[in-house]
Write a structure and sequence with these properties.
Keywords: Membrane, Transmembrane, Transmembrane helix. The protein is mainly alpha-helical. The protein contains six helices and no strands.
């Protein structure tokens, strides 16, 4: 969110659209790769929709072409898009991977989450304990 605000203040809207579209296509491709890996490693799990593997493999061929073409034609935009994605890695390690956090870190994360919910009207904020209400 902070990176988006900085880009909006510094750059123009078309550049932001290019960043977001590159990030979206990258995430779509990684999702399809995950689908193929799961079909290969866990073929027996339940799938509500099962398609022929030729469809995701064909999609990945076109995806790879578009991704390589994007990297070739606009390497700076793609590099900034990758940096934007990588800003989420410390957040993941702080919020999800680190299991035995001190209580002060948990309170900080909870207050930031509540603040973000209020700011963006994402979900109804449920800050604090039930006894306070």
């Amino acid at each position: 969110c902070l990176a988006t605000l900085i880009i909006m203040l510094v750059g123009d809207t078309y550049t932001l659209i290019n960043y977001v579209s590159f990030i979206n296509y990258l995430c779509y491709g990684v999702t399809i790769i995950g689908l193929i890996v799961l079909r290969w490693k866990k073929p027996k799990i339940f799938r509500p929709i099962k398609v022929n593997l030729l469809i995701p493999i064909t999609y990945l061929a076109f995806w790879a072409f578009l991704l390589v073409f994007s990297l070739y034609s606009e390497p700076i935009v793609c590099g900034v898009g990758l940096i934007i994605i990588l800003t989420g890695v410390p957040v993941f390690f702080l919020g999800v991977y680190w299991r035995n956090k001190p209580k002060c870190v948990n309170r900080l994360i909870e207050s930031l989450t509540c603040w973000g919910q209020k700011l963006c009207f994402v979900v109804y904020p449920q800050c604090g304990s039930a006894e306070e209400e």
